[in-house]
Amino acid sequence: MSMRNESGETVPSDIDRRKSDHLDIVLSQGHARRDRATTGLGDIRFEHAALPELSLAGIDLSVDFLGKRLAAPLLISSMTGGPDRAGRINTRLAEAAEALGIALAVGSQRVALEGRGGGGLDRSLRDLAPSVPLLANIGGAQFVLGYGEREAMRAVEMIGADALIVHLNPLQEAVQSGGDTDWRGVLPAIERLCARLRVPIVVKEVGSGISGRIARRLVDAGVSVIDVAGAGGTSWAAVEAERTEDPRRRAVARLFTDWGIGTARAIADVRTACPSIPLVGSGGVTTGIEVAQAIRCGADIVGQAAATLKAADRSTQDVIVHFEDVIETLRIACFCTGSGTIGALARAPLIDPPAFLGGPRPPDRSVRADEA
Asked: Under CATH, which architecture does the 14-371 domain have?
């Protein structure tokens, strides 16, 4: 938590500094991008529709998610930072999400739950974004370190959330100094939470992907939504390597900078294993074309985090402009594939589809986690 020095000045705690360092490293792109895994989304090539027989303005990008209608299939994914900085960022993201009609997931609420600074994570967030899905967030490892239903509901009620994300980050914890590395019992803890909590549980990775095999186990345990958060975006191993001053720990962390399941393959794998689960595709998605590619792989909605961070660090309007460009690009991608809806885009013809998209996709699905 933040503390005061002998002069009475507020100074940041170790965890505050670590969270702020994470933002600075991601913003500077100083986390070994050249060694990073690729999303695989570039392998998805749409067949161009020279006769779309559509009106560009008439294309419907809306979808249902967590019982609410989104104007576009987008989720502002979890971001974090030291409490003061996170507060400003969360305010801007909430204002932008409401203006755009898209979903918002907050970063880890552990610091706020333990009384070490709110980071803007209170009911004011719901006041700023009253009509869109809002997702709370706790790390999976915390549920074998004493957290339970009580802490989970506090996280949900703290911001008036529609669902709770349980994030999985074993690689980051393993390469981080002092990380939480005993993960025995995480799945049973998630299963208990699914049975007892009165809101849907979303499970997401943080940048290394979720396989179809793991997703199936999570869904069987009662999880309502999967967010693959695949490799190809921010490498948290690379971020931790950049941050540490220990050369041996840095060397080990750097060996894992390209670790994980690429976003495209993770989405397709989970969709095959769990045909009806509401599925969020995230991990290195930066443009509206990549949103379209993720949807064609099997995602119902698509998350962005790092691609939004620079805008969020500046102003609400910059966030809005960023996503307006993403939405316009997605609309054009729909137009040029002859897709009048997101459901149609999910079945748009491809040129030389990769092997992991060899099977047919199921027909239209409803993206309602509350009915999963």
From this structure: Alpha-Beta Barrel (3.20)
List C-alpha distances in Å: 279 to 46, 73, 176, 201, 354. Answer: 21, 11, 29, 12, 20
Please report, in range form, the residues annotated as the binding site for Mg(2+): 173
Q: Binding site residues for substrate, as ranges?
A: 18-19, 108-110, 172
Q: Any idea which residue has 């502002």 for tokens? A: 76
pTM for the complete prediction?
0.88
Binding residues for FMN: 77-80, 108, 137, 204, 234, 305-306
- Taking only the tens of pLDDT, the chain with its 372 residues reads 444 444 444 445 555 555 555 555 555 654 445 466 899 999 999 999 999 999 999 999 999 999 999 999 999 997 765 567 788 899 999 999 999 999 999 999 988 888 766 667 889 999 999 999 999 999 999 999 999 999 999 999 999 999 999 999 999 999 998 899 999 999 999 999 999 999 999 999 999 999 999 999 999 999 999 999 999 988 989 999 988 889 999 999 999 999 999 999 999 999 999 999 999 999 999 999 999 999 999 999 999 998 898 899 899 999 999 999 999 999 999 999 999 999 999 999 999 999 999 745 545 554 544 444
Q: Is the Cβ–Cβ distance between 227 and 205 less than 8 Å?
A: yes
Size (the chain), residues: 372
Binding residues: 18-19, 77-80, 108-110, 137, 172-173, 204, 234, 305-306
